[in-house]
Amino acid sequence: MTRPLDFLWFLPTSGDGAHLGSAIGQRPASNRYLREIAQAIDRLGYYGVLLPTGRGCEDAWITGASIVTHTERLKFLIALRPGVTSPGESARQAAAFDRLSNGRLLLNVVAGGNPADLAGDGLFLGHDERYEQAGEFLQIWRGLMQGRTVDFEGRYLRSRGGKLVFPPVQAPYPPLYFGGSSPPAHQLAAEQADVYLTWGEPPAQVAEKIADVRRRAARVGRTLRFGIRLHLIVRETDEQAWAAADRLIAHLSDDVIAAAQHRLTADSDSEGQRRMVALHGGDRGRLEISPNLWAGVGLVRGGAGTALVGSPATVAARIEEYRALGIDTIVASGFPHLEEAYRVAEWLFPRLDLSTGPAEQHLVNPAAIFAGGGALSANAPEFAGAR
C-alpha cells in the first residue's frame, strides 16, 4: 500500500520575489512576511516547512523559534550541521525545540556546502571527510537523544560521559532527513537517515539513486523513506504554466546566467550541484529536461534547480511517477512563496493523496460566492497577502 504524501513548503529566509535574478518585486525576509507564509501553509494543510541554512539566509534555528509559536500543527525542517556544531550542544538545542513545539521538529542533516562558506565557519575537511565526520557526529547525537550516556572515541569527534537531561518529545528522536548524491552521502543516508532527499532530477536518475541507497541500507539491516525537493509552477492550463515559467526568468541576461553558472561550478565540490548544472549546462534552449520538468531555476540558483510545470492534472501525474519510485515526501516551493503556496494547495492538493488535510474547511461554496457577486475569497491566489 502506497503511503500518503508528506507535502512540505519552503520558507524563503534570504528573500522572495516573482522574478529570478532581479530586484523587481523583491520582498525582504522580514519576520512578519515569513510568519505570514508559515501561518498560511499551516492553515492550508501543508505537513511542514523547510528552512534553508548557510550564510546567505537568516539563521534557521532562530527564525524557526521566532515563528513556530505562531503556528498550530506545522512541522519545521531545520538544518543539523555536523561540521560546525558539537553533538552535545546540537542535541540540547534540538530537544528543546522539539519539547517547546510539542514534537514539531524535523531535522535536515547538512554535511556539505560551499567550501568557501564552510571555511568561513571553521570547517576545512575535504568532501569525503565531511561525511565521515558527520557519521561520527550522528552516532553521538542519536545516542544522546535516546537517553544513553555516550562515551565515544572517533577520528574526528570524542564524547566522554555525554548525557541529555531533557529529552525530546518524539521518540527515539525527531526524524533525520538527509540529501546527497555522492557515494559517501548515500552510505551515510543508508546508515543513519530516516528520509533520503534528492533534488528534482528526471525520474530515471532518481530511480537509480533510490535503488543505490536502498541496497546500501539493506546491507546494514535498515530501511528508510524517500523524498524529493522541487519547485512547482502550477496554473489552470499547461500553456499558462509554461508562460509563468518564462516570466520567472524573463529578466535574466546571458551575462548573469554565465556568472552564476561559473560560481555554481567553480565554488562547489557538491556532486548534487554538479548534477544540477549538468542537466541544462546554462543553455536556455534545453531547460525542459524531462516531460514537464524544467531546469530554469537552476540557471542562477544553487541547490534545487528544477520545477514541475503544468496544469494541476499534469503536475499531479508527474508527482505520481515519482511516487511509483518510492517517493513519499515532497519538499516544494514557488516564486513568490506566499501566492504559490495558495495555488498549489487549492489547485494541486485535491488531486493528491496527502498525509494531512486543511486545518480550516470552507463553510461555503466559493463558486456560489463568485457567481452571486459576493465578496472575494480570502484564499484566492491573486489576493493572497493583500490585506
Can you walk me through this structure?
The chain starts with 5 loop residues before the first strand and ends in a 16-residue tail after the last helix. A hairpin with a 2-residue loop joins strand 10 and strand 11. The model is unreliable at 361-387 (pLDDT under 50). It has one domain (6-246, 306-383): TIM Barrel (Alpha-Beta Barrel). The protein has 387 residues and is α/β, with parallel strands linked by helices. An eight-stranded parallel barrel has the order 1-2-3-4-7-8-9-13, surrounded by eight helices. A two-stranded antiparallel sheet has the order 5-6. The chain is globular, with a radius of gyration of 21 Å. The longest helix has 19 residues, at 127-145. The protein has 13 helices and 13 strands. It catalyses: an alkanesulfonate + FMNH2 + O2 = an aldehyde + FMN + sulfite + H2O + 2 H(+). Residues 6-328 form the Luciferase-like domain. Pfam families: Bac_luciferase. Belongs to the SsuD family.
CATH superfamily placement: Luciferase-like domain
The first-to-last residue Cα distance is: 43 Å
The percent range for strand residues is: 15-25%
Largest sheet: 8 strands, parallel, barrel
Query: Judging by the overall fold, what is the CATH architecture?
Result: Alpha-Beta Barrel
Query: Which regions have little confidence, pLDDT < 50, spanning 5+ residues?
Result: 361-387
The shape, in one word, is: globular
User: Taking strands numbered 1, 2, ... along the chain, how are they ordered across the largest sheet?
Assistant: 1-2-3-4-7-8-9-13
What's the total count of β strands? 13
* Rg estimate, integer Å: 21 Å
Structural class given helices, strands, pairing? alpha/beta
CATH fold type: TIM Barrel
Q: Compute the number of structural domains.
A: 1
Function: Catalyzes the desulfonation of aliphatic sulfonates.
EC number: 1.14.14.5
Keywords: Flavoprotein, FMN, Monooxygenase, Oxidoreductase
Protein name: Alkanesulfonate monooxygenase
